[in-house]
Amino acid sequence: MDVVIVTMGGEFCIEVGFMEPVLEIKQKIECILGVPVANQTLSIYGFELMDGLDMEDYPIISEGSRIYLFIKPTENKIRISVKISIPKVIELEVDSAAETVRSLKEKIHIINGAPIKRLKLLFSGKELKEDNRCLRDYGVVDQSEVTVIQKNAMSCNSPTGRIEYPTKMLRFMVQTSSCLLNSAIIPLQMRESARVAELRQVLLDQKLLPQDDYFFIHRQRIMQDDCSLRWHGVENDDFLYVFKGTVSREIN
Length: 252
Description:
- The protein has 3 domains: about 1-70, Phosphatidylinositol 3-kinase Catalytic Subunit, Chain A, domain 1 (Ubiquitin-like (UB roll), Roll), CATH 3.10.20.90; about 75-150, Phosphatidylinositol 3-kinase Catalytic Subunit, Chain A, domain 1 (Ubiquitin-like (UB roll)); about 170-245, Ubiquitin-like (UB roll), CATH 3.10.20.90.
- Helix content is about 15%, strand content about 30%.
- The protein contains 3 helices and 15 strands.
- The protein has helices spanning about 20-35, 100-110, 195-205; strands spanning about 1-5, 10-15, 40-45, 45-50, 65-70, 75-85, 90-95, 120-125, 125, 145-150, 170-175, 185-190, 215-220, 220, 240-245.
- A 5-stranded mixed sheet has the order 2-1-5-3-4, with no helix packed on it. A 5-stranded mixed sheet has the order 7-6-10-8-9, with no helix packed on it.
- Mean pLDDT is about 80; it is low at about 155-165.
- It comes from Stephania yunnanensis.
- This is Ubiquitin-like domain-containing protein.
């Protein structure tokens, strides 16, 4: 059955089984929104859904039910300034204990579209070299400023004057959820400039997925049909996850 998960920033639809544990539903939400299971509280009509129970233990839940997601605030939140260029400085709120150099690069990629591999981050004159290290390991604290440098950015003589990067082929895997083809793993190869809508059509044309509503997840972010694989930061050997359902509104 399909249920609607309602948050402060929007709502989205996912498929759940009548025998599916509440904990597994929270794990799906973590994959979609990046919110840790421990920070989630699910409720319907004021009743909290307990991790040790299944959907069948809540007879009030049926097709189309609206389940409310409450997110417990995460500690260690800090605000940092990210200087992308001389006139452009943005402010971000991050978790100093969980935000890594890599995840910050991904946020910057979403903002300005620069390839993640070409981003170099500097703090207090030193490069943040190790992608898997947390920001606080480098001494980044509240109100710190991180400078962004693009390495080897090569512009083509584009009539629009925008920086363009040569396209390349990407090899990646598409993994379906348990309700779609029993968690199949599908290897694909496409141009990095291909849009998510094109990926969707390829899977339909090859009859690798049924003609249903579903959405793609890459690194805990919902992928947008009109944006390219490169825009989403997809790299060789990455996994894209498919979940049955629809995204009703944009989720912040």
